[in-house]
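Below is how a single chain appears once it has passed through the pipeline. First comes the sequence as given, then the structure the pipeline wrote out for it. We keep one example in the README because the format questions we get most often are answered faster by looking than by reading.
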Amino acid sequence: MAPELMNLPLELRQMIWDFLLVDAEEHCKATIAGRRRLVLRFWGSLVDTIVRTRSDLLLVNKRVAVEILERLFKRHTPTFDSGPQILHVILRRLPSPILEWIRSVELKWCRFPPEPDYDHLDITEVRPLMDFIGRRTSIRTITVTLELHSSQRRPNDISIDRNYYWCMVIAYAMQLVLVGLLDEVCVQYTPDSVWALLEPEDDIQSMVHQKPSQWASPPESALSFLVEQLETRGIAGAGTNYSLDNIVARMGLQEWHQSNGVLEDAKEFWFVLKAPQEHDVYKQDGFWCSRDGQQFYYFPLGDWRPAATDKQPQNKGYDWVESS
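Resulting structure:
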């Protein structure tokens, strides 16, 4: 089938790739997986990228793979499934055309560690990753998922840790938004179980009709962690220039799906964080500041240096060029 397919006009083939790359809910089906034991062998070649991208479409032939990868990174939101250190390595080693193509990414970490060291993650892994994304890629939108728990059942510790970690990532990403290095951060607040659908700890049906400053989340909920991180990093909340009302640009509810089908009347809450319209910044002594002099971008631009082992190898004969 591939030879006949490739005889079609490029515009028609791109429409076919667009259709095949998303599921029924318009979510991109391609995931770039990173594992610590495999990433040392990843050098950004065509074959390496195909192997790390979970999509059967890339196995047809080389020409189809190149076209689909280009369409994927240019027009869709691929999912990167790895921790911050591994994701940083993958992004550094991707060919420069791909870094220029990617505009939107969704971040996941399915193999989240059971007892994370947050101080290490914060300073050593998340901060350099977000700095690299902001200054060395064309990414403008980041999507992350927070877990909505049940009000009647205590979530396990790793679920709480995951929410805390992703709220830290959101806060770092918002620092990039405030200095114009990202456009927005999309947050999906997804029930972690059927019990969370029946008895959610946050009333998402009401929240969608409230101002964000009126959200009343219980301790250790994802939204309480988010408020804490935004305040700690000087982005929004107590002691800052802005409230949640200023940075939540839009929100809504959408159907929530499971692998075994659609749960009737099940909803997922989502919201988008952006810089306030009146926001204005300047740089002083390596820090970005608001016009009243408040520093909210806590690490100087330019303090990151690539590792000595981070070489940029040749792509083994494959050229990454736009399709003709």
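The chain has 13 helices and ten strands.

See the next section for the split statistics.
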